Amino acid sequence: MYCSKCGKVMDDGQEFCAGCGSRAGSAATGQRPVIYVRDKSAGIAAILSFLVLGLGQIYVGKIVRGLVLMFAYALSIILIMVLMFATIWDGSVFYYDDVIGALVLLFIVSIIYLIVWIWNVFDAYKLANEYNDRLMADGKRPW
User: How many CB atoms lie within 10 A of CB 66?
Assistant: First the structure.
C-alpha cells in the first residue's frame, strides 16, 4: 500500500504515513494519487542534436522531424560536393580560376548550415521542455 500524498510505501495495518503523517484512508476523500512519469531531458536532447542533426528530435518523440532533418543534411552534403566538383572540374581539366568561386560557395553554404545546426539544437531543447510541460499538465504523453 502506498501513501496517497507522498507515495511512500506503507504497511497494510499502518494507519498513518511515516513520511508525511497523513491518514492511510485519505485516498477515499477524493485526492488523486501521484503518478511519477519519467520526463525527457532537455539537456540530453540538445546534446544529441549537437552531435547529430535531428537526433534530439527523435529522442523527444518527433521521429519524422528528426528523420527529415537527417535526410536533408545528408542530401545537402552530397549536393554541395557535386556542385563543388562540377565548379572546378570540366572533363579532364581542373579550372583553378574557378576555385575561388567554389570556396565562396562553400563559405555561403557553411554559414547557412551553421544557422540550421544552431536552430536544430534549440529546437530539440524547446521540444523537450514542451513535452515535459504537457506531460505535467495532463499526465499524458503529448505526441
Answer: 25
